[in-house]
Design a protein that fits this description.
binds zinc ion, 7-stranded mixed beta barrel, Glucose Oxidase, domain 1, alpha/beta, 297 residues
């Protein structure tokens, strides 16, 4: 019943709107946080295996083509979501995140210029208040994402982590949110989800994962390596998160869509936005496919 309601909501959201994909393509080159020093050395940390189980014609007359693969990957690789349990003991797993959290108004905090002159830039409360002065108050239940221009560096790990020594987390240099901004978004604006176009919501230079530690115990999922934020307006979109509904999953690949009303069209300048009316049905179908997968997987 919940699934049916959710899908009806998605149909309503998808029909008659343009869709922008905020997801990097997932493959073996998708960067991941180098945590080798903290995990079991017996594990193959660099695993990304795609094994073909079957690729052949089958059936009585060999007329049905089937391909099946088994894929092994790290949960927090490429464009993905951190479930609250990732950094909050007893927090929700990927399967337990409520669908209401996975759909919400999109807010883009653009700090591209600041990040260009300061790779350690951390979004401040002042940035959020300046945003509100220019574009209106951030509504409750928003999906707030930082655009630092970092998506252009993807998937070069040395560039996205701002380091030539990926085995040393203290050398990482990339932008994120400040602790005060996280507190403001959570306590004053009841944010649903916080996202970044960088490897972590916490800036690379941060000695502790204070944003993770502050937001996730309150049930806030995080998005990392969000793509294409230049292609949507800073407000006015509806974000739909097709996050894998994996029991005990601490995170997972997430297809992120921004749905735009026609009135937003004037704001769009990205090359990856889809403007053809003919493509809408197809993209709505892909949205639904991902959402159905999220609901029923
Ligand atoms: Zn993560």
């Amino acid at each position: 019943m919940l699934g049916i309601t959710f899908i009806s909501l998605c149909v309503t959201l998808a029909l008659g709107r343009r869709v922008v994909d905020l997801t990097h393509t997932f493959d073996q080159n998708a960067p991941k946080y180098p945590l080798e020093q903290w995990v079991d050395k017996g594990l193959d940390w660099n695993m990304f295996r795609m094994t073909t189980l079957m690729a052949k014609y089958i059936g009585p007359q060999n007329r049905t083509w089937l391909t099946l693969k088994v894929t092994e990957y790290y949960e927090h690789q490429g464009t993905h979501m951190d479930a609250p349990m990732h950094s909050a003991r007893g927090g929700e797993d990927m399967a337990s995140i409520s669908p209401e959290r996975l759909v919400g108004p999109g807010i883009v905090i653009d700090v591209t210029d600041k990040a260009e002159s300061d790779v350690n830039y951390a979004v401040t409360v002042e940035d959020l208040k300046k945003y509100e002065a220019d574009h209106g108050r951030i509504p409750p239940g928003a999906i707030i994402m930082m655009n630092s221009g970092w998506a252009r560096k993807y998937p070069d790990s040395n560039k996205v982590f701002g380091s030539q020594n990926l085995s040393d987390p203290l050398s990482f240099r990339f932008p994120g949110f400040s602790l005060e901004a996280c507190k403001f978004m959570l306590n004053k604006r009841q944010v649903s989800v916080v996202g970044v176009d960088t490897p972590s919501v916490d800036p690379g230079i941060a000695p502790e994962y204070y944003c993770h530690n502050h937001l996730q115990p309150s049930g806030v999922p995080l998005l990392e390596y969000v793509a294409n934020l230049d292609a949507i307006p800073v407000r006015g979109s509806t974000i739909v998160l097709g996050a894998i509904k994996m029991r005990e999953g601490t995170g997972g690949p997430t297809r992120i869509f921004a749905l735009l009303d026609d009135e937003n069209d004037g704001f769009i300048n990205g090359a990856n936005s889809v403007s053809s009316r003919g493509a809408i049905g197809l993209l709505s179908l892909s949205t639904l496919y991902v959402l159905c997968q999220a609901v029923y997987f």
